[in-house]
Design goal:
mainly alpha, 0% strand, elongated
Length: 141
């Protein structure tokens, strides 16, 4: 069969920054929503609450997409017995489609195409970084 299927944690590791992005986005949103006469304590409480809410939402979304992607890619790898951009693009398509499955067929198709394109772009970027920069240990390239 060749190589082992990819481990789930390999795909979930890069998703951690999305929690931070959600936290910052929510904090800025909470600060903008603050009224002119509110105390500093109320403003900070509003920013923290909004930041934690959006941070959790972003993390949940990215975690779900990462899980779908990993399971589909591992399944395709087990079935085909080899790795390649076809596995990745199909997994991206499947992850996007599964994530939007409750919204109907059109939403599934659009999300699947976006997911497949994003997966191909990520793999192409990874290949370019390996080729032109070399081994980068931070994200496990």
């Amino acid at each position: 069969m060749g190589k082992k299927p990819p481990a789930l944690h390999r795909h979930l590791l890069p998703l951690q920054p999305h929690c931070t992005v959600g936290l910052v986005h929510g904090a800025v949103k909470g600060l903008k929503a603050a009224g002119a006469g509110e105390s500093r304590k109320v403003i900070m409480s509003r920013a923290l609450s909004s930041g934690l809410e959006l941070g959790g939402r972003y993390s949940g979304t990215m975690g779900s997409l990462g899980f779908y992607f990993s399971v589909i890619e591992s399944g395709i790898h087990s079935y085909r017995g080899k790795e390649g951009i076809l596995n990745t693009s199909a997994a991206g398509f499947g992850a996007g489609a599964m994530y939007k499955a409750a919204r109907g067929l059109r939403a599934m198709a659009v999300a699947g195409v976006i997911g497949g394109a994003a997966a191909v772009a990520a793999v192409s970027g990874k290949i370019a970084v390996k080729k032109y920069v070399g081994e980068v240990g931070v994200w496990g390239f």
